[in-house]
Amino acid sequence: MNKIALLLIALLGHTLRAQKTPFNLQDIFARPTFSMKSNGGFNTMNDGERYTTLEKKNGAWAINSYGITDQKLIGSIVTSEDFDEKYTPANYEFTGDEKHILIYEETEKIYRRSFKSLAYVINIENKKITKISDTKIMYPSINPDNSAVAYVQENNIYILDLQSMKTTAVTSDGRKNEIINGAVDWVYEEEFGMSTGLWWNSSGTHLAYYRFDERAVKEFSMDVFNGLYPKQESWKYPKAGEDNSKVDVKIYDRVKSLSITLDLKSERDQYIPRIEWTNNPEIISIQRLNRLQNHWELLFCNTSGTPPEVILEEKNNTYVEISDNLNFIGDHRFFYTSEKSGFNHIYCYDFSKKKEKALTYGDWEVLNVVATDESSSTIYYTSSEESVLEDHFYSISFSGNKKKALCPEPGNHQITMTNGNKYFIDRHSGFDMAPNIYLRSSDGVLKTMLADNSKTTESFKKYQFGASSFGKVLVNGSELNYWMIKPYNFDSSKKYPLFMHTYGGPGHNTVTNSYGYTNYQWHNYLSSLGYIVISVDNRGTLKRGADFKKSTYKKLGKLEHLDQSAAAEYFGNLPYIDKDRIGIWGWSFGGYLTSLCLTKSPNTFKMGIAVAPVTNWRYYDNIYTERFLQRPQDNPEGYDENSPINFVDQMKGKYLIVHGTADDNVHYQNSVEMVEAMIQSNVSFDSEFYPNKNHGIYGGNTRYHLYQKLTDFVVQNL
């Protein structure tokens, strides 16, 4: 082939590459360019053949029922026309027997999971609607025989008898920032992933509930700027090493109108992260965890208040994870997950015989027990058995046999089981593939597609999205997974700046074969501007066994920083990367790790962006921080040697720190103190704050403004 022909081919290739359509931040945050379909509110009925949705139009509303496989309207269960008064429900839920519906209006968010609202009970048969209280309440719960509803109001528990319409006060000592009944304090909600704190037994005769005495816990306050005089919000926030709430578990006997306090026979400085009634209405299970979180116990207590029985316990040299994977089967068995083999697996425990059997095993992790089905003696779970990069869905018998992969397609599968376990919803995505949502039968057979986002996926090819790939890099004796996005017009003869995305915190992965939504789009936008974007999962992340995850114990941040820095140096030596132009960014723990890299590896990183970062572990909550670092009193070096605020004088690169002023999780204090430390060390920096925004920094035009700021900083400094 002559030179002219080769030149023509090269020019043609260049032309084809150049034909890709540019896109910008407005396409990501302001226009529906990459919008996706979803299956909306999809609440399945007990028969497994129907689902319901709340639909609104022209001021009217209805809770409608549809066939689950054909998506056809069956009819309306209740509508606004059934009632003389006007209601505007924001959400709803059925009782267990589907004879009543709870509807919520004027919902007011409190923290990450908690909210309060006006709440009503609808009797489906006669269309009678009952307002539970004239003011907003929390956690309304109807007992199994539909005779009463328990709820929390102003930190006290009340029970409304739905026949007599008489309201009984179960507690009276509740006070803001003092005593909480029927709910949990801030740190339990955030770190144990819970909010409600009351539960009926199966017969509806007894109500178990939490009582938190948080008077000894110190208050944290922040200003909310919303008028001439800012409003100050305050709540109890136990920081590392500080006093916790004293927690009691109480049981209210509705027949006797009497509460008893369970005698847990242990120290007060402990955690009670889970409470669950067994299938026996007289027996309740309580999970207890010591403050160091390395000794877990499962207790059984009865409604008479006799001393508890320790059914199962686990000790660890580091910490024991808490999950929702405890499931009671029949009268004498339960399933649970544990990392005691070195990997998280499912166990069956027969507490009548005190015998245990491992149902899954191997060098891979069970991630979540989705459902247990007694009728078919089947457990449904997700795991990393196929790949550390992917979540797949499996079933296995109660005996540990007949394991079956239900979603073998490559990629990530987020699973929701329908009521009755007849079907499941499979939200299937890949790194470059927007989620498609499928309805499958419990044996994995495809029934229908609920949402097809293939057009969105195809649009990525039309626009200047880069070429992505996964790989492994050997650093510090560990093989670490990474993804890389190269510019759409990548030229191996050129050198490109490198921009790294990190989170790196315990039990959390960024390197997954799953769709990353706006971050995926933004990283591709940066690649279209001529950047190579990379993310690396350092030691301490999930799916690779307990040793890998817990290697960071007592030195949180140290190994993570070393791995990110070593990976940056490795990539910087590739022929197509400019080692003098390496940047890094992250949010929350990722912001912390970014700050640590900028201060402790100042010669490696030219710039960094820290969004809502922890800058001193002494500022963060005690459950999370002490789980990995113990108390500051016990391990001061672990705190001080790995908090970036202590090393600002070493910083050389360009640094942007961003925070919402109303962040109840990682307090704005972290950024303020970091800024003050940099000022006193005469370190140059950039900063951006977002008034009245929490840890997520969103609302209105906020996200667009934020990512414009981030983009400008990258372009100007890398």
Could you tell me the CATH topology label of the domain at 466-717: Rossmann fold
Structural class: alpha+beta
The number of E-state strands comes to 43
Unreliable stretches, pLDDT < 50, 5 or more residues?
3-16
The number of helical elements comes to 12
Q: What is the class of the domain at 466-717 in the CATH system?
A: Alpha Beta
Relative helix content: 10-25%
Global mean pLDDT = 95
Shape: globular
CATH superfamily of the domain at 466-717: Alpha/Beta hydrolase fold, catalytic domain
State the CATH architecture of the domain at 466-717: 3-Layer(aba) Sandwich
Strand content: 35-45%
The strands making up the biggest β-sheet line up spatially as 36-37-39-38-40-41-42-43
How does the major sheet shape up?
Answer: 8 strands, mixed
* Radius of gyration (Å): 27 Å
Q: How far is the N terminus from the C terminus?
A: 41 Å
What is the fold's blueprint, element by element?
Blueprint: H1 3-18, H2 25-29, E1 43-44, E2 50-57, E3 60-67, E4 73-79, E5 91-94, E6 100-109, E7 115-123, E8 128-131, E9 138-142, E10 148-153, E11 156-161, E12 167-169, E13 179-181, H3 186-191, E14 198-200, E15 206-213, E16 219-224, E17 231-236, E18 246-253, E19 258-261, E20 270-277, E21 283-290, E22 295-302, E23 309-315, E24 327-329, E25 333-338, E26 345-350, E27 355-358, E28 366-373, E29 378-383, E30 392-397, E31 404-405, E32 412-417, E33 423-430, E34 433-441, E35 446-451, H4 454-462, E36 467-475, E37 478-486, E38 496-501, H5 517-528, E39 532-536, H6 546-550, H7 558-572, E40 577-587, H8 589-600, E41 607-611, H9 622-629, H10 636-640, E42 654-660, H11 669-680, E43 686-690, H12 702-717
Parallel strand pairs: 38-39, 38-40, 40-41, 41-42, 42-43
Antiparallel strand pairs: 1-2, 2-3, 3-4, 5-6, 6-7, 7-8, 9-10, 10-11, 11-12, 13-15, 14-15, 15-18, 16-17, 18-19, 20-21, 21-22, 22-23, 24-25, 25-26, 26-27, 28-29, 29-30, 30-31, 32-33, 33-34, 34-35, 36-37, 37-39
Helix pairs in contact: 7-8
